[in-house]
Specification:
Distance between the termini: 33 Å
Number of domains: 1
Helix content: 25-40%
Oligomer: single chain
Order of helices and strands: HEHHEE
Strand content: 15-25%
Structural class: alpha+beta
Strand order of the largest sheet: 1-3-2
Radius of gyration: 13 Å
Number of strands: 3
Length: 97
């Protein structure tokens, strides 16, 4: 993204959330989360790294990490390990908060 371009936080969250969901769903090798009801999703899933989301969206990695922090527990389950931030799981839209 160009240095003089600014995008509001809500738009960044939407971009990161959509990218994270699509990349996370594509990474799953044992099931298709769009075809299988969420209660039937296996516990072990393939995570998606923040850097992959940054590349997909064209956003700065720090902006992606900030958005993932805001989306954690709302739309996504985010994990942090050794300086890496990964989307571990998507939260289905029909899940009560």
């Amino acid at each position: 993204m160009a240095p003089d371009e600014t995008i509001d936080e809500s738009t960044i969250d939407d971009m990161v959330g959509e990218s994270a969901l699509q990349l996370w769903a594509a990474a799953q090798t044992d099931f298709d989360p769009f075809q299988l009801p969420s209660p039937e999703w296996p516990e072990t899933t393939v995570p998606v790294r923040d850097v992959d989301i940054a590349i997909d969206t064209g956003l700065d990695e720090d902006d992606v990490r900030a958005a993932l922090g805001r989306l954690d527990g709302v739309k996504l389950v985010v994990g942090r390990e050794a300086g890496n931030v990964s989307v571990l799981r998507a939260i289905p839209e029909d899940t009560p908060l």
